[in-house]
Design goal:
Elements (H helix, E strand, L loop, with lengths): L1 E2 L5 E2 L11 E5 L3 E6 L2 E10 L6 H18 L20
Antiparallel strand pairs: 1-2, 3-4, 4-5
Length: 91
């Protein structure tokens, strides 16, 4: 916890709990979502039972996370010189 000059508590910026790309690892009873760099430490487990689409859920979780990871960049969210439709500078 960090305190501001006024003494209020501020929450420190946290790193993402899952750094790097995710992959699916299959075991006999479940599909696991793991970090590519550490496949022994799973983040989510989808059991293969009662017709539950475990593979699809695991693959979708990996696809969504990795897509968001790829879209994150250090650059601005819009191209330089682009003005949003509702741009109204303050006086």
């Amino acid at each position: 916890m960090v305190r501001s000059r006024s003494g209020c508590n501020l929450v420190e910026e946290r790193r993402h709990q899952a750094d790097g790309r995710l992959v699916v690892r299959e075991e006999e009873a479940a599909f696991l979502v793991v970090r590519a760099e550490d496949p022994d430490d799973w983040l989510a487990r989808f059991e293969k039972e009662d017709g539950f689409p475990a593979r699809q859920w695991a693959e979708n979780m990996v696809r969504v996370y990795n897509r968001r990871l790829e879209r994150r960049s250090g650059g601005p969210p819009t191209n330089p010189g682009t003005r949003p439709y509702s741009y109204h500078p303050e006086p």
